[in-house]
Amino acid sequence: MLVARGFVADGALDLTGFADVLGRPRTWRLVGLTLAQSFLGTGFALVAGLPVAFLLYRRTFPGRGLLRGLVTVPFVLPTVVVGVAFRSLFVPDGALGFLGLEETLGGIVVALVFFNLAVVVRTVGGLWERLDPRTEQAAAALGASPGRVWWTVTLPSLAPALVSAASVVFLFCATAFGVVMVLGGARYGTVETEIWVRTTQFLDLRSAAVLSILQLVVVATALAVSARTRSRREAALHLVSDRTSAVPLRRSRGDVAAVAATAAVVGGLILLPLGGLALRSFRGPDGRLGLANYAALGTTGERGALTVTVWEALGNSLRTAAWACAIALVVGGLVALLASRRPRGTGARRAVSLLDGLFMLPLGVSAVTVGFGFLVTLDQPLGVEYDLRTSPALVPIAQAVVAVPLVTRTVLPVLRAIDPRLREVAGTLGAGPWAVLRTVDLPLAARSLGLAVGFAFAVSLGEFGATSFLVRPQSETLPVVIFRLIGRPGAENYGMALAASVVLAALTAVVMMLAERLRGDHGGGEF
C-alpha cells in the first residue's frame, strides 16, 4: 500500500510525487545526512567492537558472563532512553558539555555506536570463538609478526561475520528514529524523522510514502547483503570446531591492549552515559539531590504535560509488551520452524528463502514506516468492515511486527543446527510430526526460545517509532511519555523524563539479564 501511494494517484500511474520530492534540495540533504550517520556509525561500531569481541570470546576470566550481559544491554534499550542518556551528557552543564556535541551529527553517531556495539560483539565474537587457533599459531611459527598474522589469517577468517554485522548495523543506523529525534533537535533530521514530520505535522501522506519507498530501496539492498553474508557466516561456522577456542587471559601485549580498549569502550561508551543519566535523575528541579523527580512520576507533570501519569504509562507498556511478545513468539517461532527445513525441490527451497526474507523486512524497515503503513491501510483490512485503527490491539500487533525478526533470527540458527537424522530416527520409531516437534525440536530450541522471549519483550517495551503513530492519548506507553516530557518546557518535566528513562532502562536490563541467564552457554542466534 505504501508503494501504491507513491506511484498511483486517482487509480492511475502518477510519478509527480517522486518528481516533487526528489526535486527538493531538502530531500537530498536529508538523504546525505542519513547515509553519513549510517556509514560513520557502522565504521566506528566495528572499530570499537573488535577488541571487545576478542576479549569476551577468545579469552576467559572471572566475570566474563556478566560483562557480556552488560555489553548486550544497550542493544535492547529503548532508543528514547539512549537519546535522553546522551542528551544529559551533551547539554552545556553535562559531563561532556565542553565537547559541543549537542544537536550535532557527532553526538548522534556516538549514540548509534553505543546502541549497535552489541551487534558487532556478538556476531563477530560468535565466529571468532570457534576459529581454530592452530592456523594463527602455524603462521607465527613460520615467522609472521602478530600484525601480519592478524591481516593474513585472522581478519580473512572473520570477514563473513564482519560484513554481516556491518550490514545489520548500517540498517539500524539508517532507520534510527528515537535517537535522532531526541539528539538532533530542530537542526538535524534524517529520512526517518522526515517521514514522521510529513505524516504527523503536515498530513502530507504522498511525500511520506515516496520517502518510505526511497528508504525501502536502501533497506532491501542492505538486507540482500546481510542475507548473503549470513549464509557465508553459517557456512564458516560449519567449517570450524564446535568447541570454544577461548583461553585464559594472559599478560601478553595483545591481551593488555584488548583489556585497555575494552575498558575504554565499556567505561566511556556504556557506563558513562548510563551512570550520568542515573545521577542526573536524582537532581530535582531546585538543583538539590533527592527523590523529587521519582515522586513526581505519579503526576501528569508540570502544567499538565501528560494525559496519564508515568506509572500508568508503565502499566500500559507492560501490558502491550506482553501481548506483542506472545504474538511475536508464535509467529516468529513458526517462521523459524518452517525456514529451518531444507526441502529437496528447488522451487520449495526458494519459497522458504523468500518467506524468511519477507519476515526479515521489519528488521530493516523503520518502525516509523511500519506505523505509517498500518495507519494508511488498516481502515478495512482485507475487506473486513471494521476499522482496526480504532482497536487497542493495533499497537501490540505493530510492536509484534517489529519484534518477529528478532525472534526468528534468535531461534532459526538453533533449529538449523539440529541434525536431521534425529527427526528421521524419531519418525522411523513411529513418532508423528507433532511428536517429533515436541520431543526433538522443542527441547533443543528451548533455551533459545527463552532468549527470544527476552528480546521480544524488551524490544516491545521500548518501541517508539510505530507506537508514536498509533497510540491513543489514554493508552500512551512509557517511551512516548518520555518523549513528550522532553518536548515540554519546565525543569520538573525534564527531571521526570530522566527518572522515567532510568525506570525503563532498569526494567529492560533486568529482562535481558534474565533472558541471558536462562540461555546460559547454549542457544545460538544472530544477536
UniProtKB/TrEMBL annotation:
> What top-level branch of life does the organism fall under?
Bacteria
A Pfam family of this chain: BPD_transp_1
Task: Tell me which residues make up the ABC transmembrane type-1 domain.
Answer: 31-224, 314-515
Membrane topology of this protein:
Multi-pass membrane protein
- Please provide the record's keywords in A-Z order: Cell inner membrane, Cell membrane, Membrane, Transmembrane, Transmembrane helix, Transport
Localization = Cell inner membrane; Cell membrane
InterPro entries (UniProt xref): MetI-like (IPR000515), MetI-like_sf (IPR035906)
**Which segments cross the bilayer?**
35-57, 69-90, 105-124, 158-185, 205-225, 256-279, 321-339, 351-376, 448-471, 494-515
Would you identify the family this protein belongs to, as annotated?
Belongs to the binding-protein-dependent transport system permease family.
Q: What is this protein called?
A: Iron ABC transporter permease
The species this protein was found in: Myceligenerans pegani
